Amino acid sequence: MELLPLLDAQSVEPLYSQLYRHIRGEIEAGRLRAGSRLPSVRKLAAHLGISRTPVEDAYQQLLAEGYAASRPRSGITVQIYEPEFSRGFYRTSSAEPGRKESPRLVLPAKKADPSIPVHAGEKTDWIDFSYGDIDLSHFPFPLWKKLLGSCFSPDHRDLFRYGDPLGESGFREALSDYAYRARAVICPPERIVVGAGTHHSTEQICRLLQRTPYSAAHSPIAVEQSMSDGIAAIMRQHGYRLVPLRLEPDGIRIEDLYDSGARIVYTTPSHQFPHGMVMSIGKRRRLLNWAADVGGLIVEDDYDGEFRYAGLPIPSLQGLDAAANCVVYMGTFSRALAPAFRLSYTALPPALAIAAKAALHPFDRLASPLHQKTLELFMAGGHMQRHIRKMRSVYQRKMAALLAAVRRCLEPRFRVSGGGAGLHVLLETDDGRDEAQLIRLAEAAGVRVYPTSVYRIDPHRGESASILLGFGGLDERRIEEGVRRLADVWKR
Ligand SMILES: Cc1ncc(COP(=O)(O)O)c(C=O)c1O
């Protein structure tokens, strides 16, 4: 293998860094193939006419970032280069994440480069800041089992059938009450449709809108410049063009919305996903005014609105819509209870509620009547409110631990955003390193953190590197340890 880097001994950039960048570039460009062997330290040093130290340091960096792996007797080989990172959201197990362990470091013992603390290979105790994990240690398992068990009786034959495409009537009544108490959503049961998660609810809404002046033929959907990629994919599958709106510290830029020409807007006002800002009350009113001005429809995705830590929970936008005719509200139990129940609901304006009856299909009966009934009983006993109160204080402590650790170990180089609500934060830096480098370095320390570029609607818009950390499934000790490890590998 020929490596011909142009090394400049006079440059302020150290030789090892020039060499590391060259080899990394060759791997990323595909000129150094996965599985091919890098020359030995001794050979490459001799070939380049430099000492072994910069070559060893460059190799250490490539190993630490996962570009290369080192195994006894096979030397150092190029690893498969994966330009796309997986999102924490889609991880399916809370045990060791499904991906290969980071490469084992077997370079001859030498002084470690203090800028690259290497933990790879030793780690079996991954700390996974996966977005989407929740804390199950406070889930009321015995009570849930008892309530579910009470459904297993011949008196409840109806719960063992397919059920109603709109959702079970008792559950919709309980939802109407719960949504009002927990989120100030004002909606009678007849206008509530049950779904199997927000993604299913989004799909139902897109189908519903097909028969209205809000179909894809009539309007694009204006969206926040970064948003859930799954929800964006569903909207696009239904033929909608998505028009990104810039984000300001208090939510979407309303001027962009007027300019977009769209008559539908999708938004996460209680906790923007993924950036975490809360839409100000002034902006909420301007958004409702926009809908009144253009005859627009607002799709409000309230995926974790129950968990706000500073001050009182922000009531839903739907509740501010006095005429109740321009907000479609989506709620989910994926955060407040657990994603596995696959339960969500949509509160529809009157005209769309009428259309829903015709537009829904038997295949919409995806949410199990058994889970619907169990949650109905759970709510009726007042347990849901208690559970949310409990979890709010649990997650508040975790968030506080995370923010304190970031303050101690990562600021001012990294800024944190979205710390007032929800189960994730973003860490941003403009120190020159990109998302991919930061994620690889974190992996070398046995820490999984996640990219945010996958959520950008316009991928070409440059932004500072921004990393997503979900903390719902980690306890405070692990959160602090994770941030310490990140500080260790991310320092320069
Ligand atoms: C913006 C947003 N909405 C909703 C959800 C919840 O989706 P679901 O209800 O399908 O689990 C998520 C993911 O957790 C999300 O990121």
| Broad shape | elongated
Q: What is the count of DSSP helices, taking H or I runs of 4+ residues?
A: 14
CATH superfamily of the largest domain: Type I PLP-dependent aspartate aminotransferase-like (Major domain)
Overall tally of structural domains: 3
Radius of gyration: 26 Å
Low-confidence stretches: 92-122
How would you write the strand order of the largest sheet? 4-12-11-10-9-5-6
> How does CATH name the architecture of the largest domain?
3-Layer(aba) Sandwich
Bound molecules: pyridoxal-5'-phosphate
Helical fraction: 25-40%
CATH class of the largest domain: Alpha Beta
In short, what is this structure?
The chain has 492 residues and is α/β, with parallel strands linked by helices.
Structure description:
This protein has 492 residues and is of the alpha/beta class. It folds into three domains: 1-81, Arc Repressor Mutant, subunit A; 102-133 and 382-492, Aspartate Aminotransferase, domain 1; 156-381, Type I PLP-dependent aspartate aminotransferase-like (Major domain) (Aspartate Aminotransferase, domain 2). 36% of the residues lie in helices and 13% in strands. α1 crosses α3 (52-64), α6 runs parallel beside α7 (229-237) and α13 (435-444) crosses α14. Pyridoxal-5'-phosphate binds next to α6.
